[in-house]
């Protein structure tokens, strides 16, 4: 069997998720109480890939190392490579040459999620002997992505980065399969107008020079979780598909309906919880309503509040809020009620305090 290694890109500035990303990398923001990049790591592991490098950016790289360690907790072996400033995907890949050696490898953006994973595409890329193998997904607004250009026979002839006039509706998914020859291509690249080494330019050169470049159209959903609404949507999909009813904590004088996961040490007191929902370790829910599509991070406390379709990170506190919906609440944040009430929509950063 051909050895395949994995590379998770964990850099980028995360500007669209500020202020949360001032104090932590976007890939560690949780969906259903699990960091997005952990889904990526588990997808690689489920595809038979155990040797993984995580490319770190400028934002709190120590948080990533602290969470993943040497990988043994996840049944993989993890190496760390520092990119620092976000100089492009191709630049990040180029830093991994020594790690990859002579093996085939997968590059997986740490803020992307695929409903059905990559296992079948790993097999296709290897069985086809491709120098590069890429994935596309049809999207409504291809101007936000790298976009495929096909000839009349359906052969891939080019890639266009964020085109004003897209040649197709097929966006480049953030998963790439390569042989080591790509490193020689990357060496020849010049920075784009964004000052970055573009992976689309590298793949275009491979196409132009006759390398064997294949592709698949992805079945199921694909998520690029770069904005608050993307996180909430991903949370909804994952809770819908993967959460099962399990009560490990205490439920006192409360009603828990549907697929709700209550982790160890959590207490639900005089409350209603309607799934799908996840309540993390050591949480306290008292006198509250927790509605569908809500994930509550470890150690958070919710008193006399109604919360629905929210992602609440660790150690947050929500008190006396009549309706909190469609919100992303950072670590250690506090949301409390003043004299006014009503529907609230929030996107607040770590260690914030908001009175409403």
Q: Note the gap between the termini.
A: 59 Å
Quick check: average pLDDT? 89
What share of the residues lie within helices? 10-25%
Kindly report the CATH topology of the largest domain: Spore Coat Polysaccharide Biosynthesis Protein SpsA, Chain A
Strand order of the largest sheet: 5-4-1-6-11-8-12
The first-level CATH class of the largest domain is given as Alpha Beta
Strand content: 25-35%
Task: Give a structural overview.
- By secondary structure, this protein is an alpha/beta fold.
- The protein has two domains: 4-238, Spore Coat Polysaccharide Biosynthesis Protein SpsA, Chain A (Alpha-Beta Complex); 243-355, UDP N-Acetylglucosamine Acyltransferase, domain 1, CATH 2.160.10.10.
- The strands form seven sheets. Strands 5-4-1-6-11-8-12 form a seven-stranded mixed sheet. A seven-stranded parallel sheet has the order 14-17-20-23-26-29-32.
- Strand 4 (51-57), helix 2 and strand 5 (77-84) form a beta-alpha-beta unit.
- The mean pLDDT is 89.
Name its key features.
seven-stranded parallel sheet, 8 helices, 356 residues, Spore Coat Polysaccharide Biosynthesis Protein SpsA, Chain A, 33 strands, alpha/beta, 2 domains, UDP N-Acetylglucosamine Acyltransferase, domain 1
Can you describe this structure in just a few lines?
19% of the residues lie in helices and 35% in strands. The chain is an alpha/beta fold and 356 residues long.
Secondary structure blueprint with pairings:
Elements lengths: L3 E7 L19 E2 L2 E2 H11 L4 E7 L3 H8 L8 E8 L4 H6 L2 H4 L3 E6 L2 E3 L4 H9 L4 E7 L7 E5 L5 E6 L8 E9 L3 H6 L11 H10 L4 E5 L4 E3 L3 H15 L3 E2 L2 E3 L2 E3 L2 E3 L4 E3 L2 E3 L2 E3 L4 E3 L2 E2 L3 E3 L4 E3 L2 E3 L2 E2 L4 E3 L3 E3 L2 E2 L4 E3 L6 E2 L2 E2 L4 E3 L1
């Amino acid at each position: 069997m051909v050895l395949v290694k994995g590379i998770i890109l964990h850099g980028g500035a995360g500007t669209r998720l500020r202020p949360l990303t001032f104090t932590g990398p976007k890939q560690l923001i949780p969906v259903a109480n699990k960091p997005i990049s952990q889904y990526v790591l588990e997808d690689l592991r489920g595809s038979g890939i155990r040797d993984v490098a995580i490319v770190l950016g400028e934002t709190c790289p120590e948080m990533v190392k602290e969470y993943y360690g040497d990988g043994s907790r996840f049944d993989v072996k993890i190496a760390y490579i520092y990119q620092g400033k976000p100089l492009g995907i191709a630049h990040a890949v180029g830093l991994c040459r020594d790690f990859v050696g002579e093996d085939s490898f997968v590059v997986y953006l740490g803020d992307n999620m695929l409903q059905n994973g990559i296992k079948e595409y790993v097999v296709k890329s290897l069985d086809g002997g491709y120098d590069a193998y890429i994935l596309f997904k049809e999207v409504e607004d291809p101007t936000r992505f790298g976009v495929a250009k096909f000839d009349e026979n359906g052969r891939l002839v080019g890639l266009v980065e964020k085109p004003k006039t897209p040649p197709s509706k097929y966006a480049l998914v953030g998963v790439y399969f390569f042989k080591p020859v790509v490193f020689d291509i990357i060496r020849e690249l010049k920075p784009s107008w964004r000052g970055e080494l573009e992976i689309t330019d590298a793949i275009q050169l491979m196409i132009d020079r006759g390398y064997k470049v294949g592709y698949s159209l992805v079945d199921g959903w694909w998520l690029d979780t770069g904005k608050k609404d993307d996180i909430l949507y991903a949370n909804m999909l994952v809770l819908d598909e993967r959460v099962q009813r399990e009560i490990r904590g205490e439920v006192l004088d409360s009603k828990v309906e549907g697929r709700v996961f209550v982790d160890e040490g959590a207490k639900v007191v005089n409350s209603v919880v309607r799934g799908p929902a996840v309540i993390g370790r050591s949480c306290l829910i008292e006198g509250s309503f927790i509605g569908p599509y809500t994930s509550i991070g470890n150690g958070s406390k919710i008193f006399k509040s109604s919360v629905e379709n929210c992602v609440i990170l660790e150690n947050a506190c929500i008190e006396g809020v009549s309706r909190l919906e469609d919100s992303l609440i950072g670590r250690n944040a506090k949301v409390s009620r003043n004299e006014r009430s009503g529907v609230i929509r929030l996107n607040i950063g770590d260690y914030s305090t908001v009175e409403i």
